[in-house]
Amino acid sequence: ATENKALITLFGATGDLAKRKLYTSLFKLYQKGYLADHFALLGTSRHEMSDEEFQEMVLNSIKDIPAKDGEAEEFSKHFFYCAHDVTKPEHYAKLKDRLAELDKQFGTEGNRLFYMSMAPQFFGTIAINIKKQGLLTDNGYNRLVIEKPFGRDFDSAKKLNDELSQTFEENQIFRIDHYLGKEMVQNIQALRFGNPVIEALWNNRYIDNIQVTLSEKLGVEERAGYYDNSGALRDMVQNHIMQVVAQLAMEEPVAFTDDDVRVEKIKALRSLRVYTPSQAAANFVRGQYGADGSQPDYRHEDGVDPESGTETFVAAKLMFDNYRWSGVPFYVRTGKKLADKFTRIDVVFKKPLIDIFANPNSGNEQALHSNVLTVFVEPKSGFALQLNAKHVGQGYTTEPVDLKFLQSDSAKKESPEPYERLFHDALEGNHTNFASWAEIAYAWKFVDVIRNLWDIEKPQFPNYTPGSMGPAAATELLARDGRKWVYDL
Ligand code: NAD
C-alpha cells in the first residue's frame, strides 16, 4: 500500500458516526499501510476534552478490531482535539494554529482533508469559515468530505452547494453516499462492462423491466427525530436508490476513471423523465407501517408526531427517455419494517416472442419463465441468472433453474466496509464513488415533484402491516402494467 500523507480535520468528532464508523475505518487503513507516519487527525466538537481523552475515545471505538501489540496505541497518537463551536468565526483561529503545528509535526505536506460529520445545517457555515479564517493551504491539496443529507429539496441543496462552492471547487468535494461504497454496488460496472454476454442484452430490446429493492426489517429505532422530518423519499430514494439506478442505466464510460464515469451517470439522470404532478401521483406509492402485536405503529414510536404523515415506505416507477431504455420501467422500492433486511436488483428479461414448448398438442401447458438476473447486494453478495431448462425425465416440460455465484464468507470478510473504502478514495482524490452536484441536482428535481404533492395531500396512514412488503398499492403499481415484483412473499 502507498501511504497517503494527510491532515484530517473532523467536525463532529464526538458524534455517533465518528465513533461507530470513521475511527474504525481509519484504523483499518492504518493497519494496511494506507495511513502511516505522515497522518494526523484533529477532532473538533463543542465539548471540552484533552488530546489524551480524545485518544482514549478513539481507542475505545476501535477496541474490537484485532490488532498487533501496541498498534492501536500507536495509531491513537495521531489524534488530537480542539473544542470549537462551528458557528463562532473566532474559534477557527485556534484550529488554524493547531493545523499548522500538526502539519509540521507529521510532515503532511499541506494536504488537508476536512470531514463534516455534523448536523447538515452547519455544513455551509463551516465551509465558508474554512476559507475566511485561512484554514486552506496552498502547498498541498484541500478536500472536503461531506455527509448526507445534501439538502431537503432542490432549492436547499442548491443553496448548500453554492455555499460550499465559495470555498471548494467541485473536484475538491466528496459527497458521501455509502451505498456507493458497497462491494456489490461497485460490482454493477464490472458485471455490465466486463461481460459482453450481459452488456449486449442490456437495453430495451431484451430487458422488460428492472427492479431495485432496499428493504429494512427494523422500524425507526433511535433515529425517529431525524426520520420523522425526512421520510423514506429523502432518506433513501433521492440518494441511494438514484445512485444505484444511475449505474444500471448509464452508458459505457470511455474509461473507468472518475471523470468518465461521472459524465455517464449525469447523462443517464438527465434522461430520467421528470413527471408532471399528475404523472408523479400515478407512479409513486407511499406507505407508513402499522402496529404489530405489542409493537407500536409508526405514529406511536418515541419521538414521532402522533399525526405524522411521514412515509416509511416508497415505491415508484421510473422511466428513462433515451434510446437504450425507452419503454423499460425501473421499479424501485424501499421501506422500514418490511419482511426482511436486504438489498437486491432484479433485471427481468423479455420472454421469448414465441414459446415453442407451449404447443397445446404436446399437452404442455406450462409457460416459459422470464430470465432474471439478480444482483444480491446484501446481506449475501453475488449474482444469480434464472434460465429455463428441461425438467429431468420423460416428456418435455421446462422449469426455471439458477446459475448462481455468491461471494464466500472469507471474501466478504476481506471486503472493506463502505466507509473504509470511501475514506481511502477521498485520500487518493478519486471521485468515482461519490455523488457529483449535477447528479444530486437531477435527483432532487425528480423527487421534488412528488414531495410537493405529498406535502399537501393528507395520506391514509398506516397502510401496511409490519413484516409485509409494503402497501397493496405497491403491488398494484406493477400489476397494472401486467408485471409483478420478483421478490415477493
Ligand atoms: P451526532 O449528533 O451524533 O454528532 C454530531 C457532532 O457534532 C457531535 O460531535 C457534536 O458535539 C457536534 N456539534 C454539534 N453542534 C456543534 C457546534 N455548534 N459546533 C461544534 N460541534 C458541534 O451526529 P452523527 O450521527 O454522528 O451524524 C453526523 C453526520 O453524519 C450527519 O450529517 C448525519 O446525517 C450523517 N450520518 C450519520 C449516520 C449515523 O449512522 N450516525 C449515518 C449516515 C449519515
Q: What layout of secondary structure does this protein have?
A:
Layout (H helix, E strand, L loop, with lengths): L5 E6 L4 H16 L7 E7 L5 H11 L9 H6 L2 E5 L8 H15 L5 E5 L6 H10 L9 E5 L7 H12 L7 E3 L7 H11 L2 H4 L7 E9 L8 H7 L1 H18 L8 H13 L6 H7 E4 L25 E6 L11 E6 L6 E8 L22 E7 L3 E9 L7 E9 L2 H6 L3 H11 L8 H20 L15 H8 L10
Parallel strand pairs: 1-2, 1-4, 2-3, 4-5, 5-6, 7-10
Antiparallel strand pairs: 7-11, 8-9, 9-10, 11-12, 12-13, 13-14
The site of nicotinamide-adenine-dinucleotide (NAD) has 19 residues, from helix 1.
| CATH 2nd-level architecture of the largest domain | 2-Layer Sandwich
Order of helices and strands: EHEHHEHEHEHEHHEHHHHEEEEEEEHHHH
Ends apart, CA distance between termini: 46 Å
Please give the number of β-strands. 14
Rg (C-alpha, Å): 25 Å
Ligands bound to this protein structure: nicotinamide-adenine-dinucleotide
Spatial strand order of the main sheet:
8-9-10-7-11-12-13-14
The share of residues in helices is 25-40%
Task: Please tell me what the overall shape is.
Answer: globular
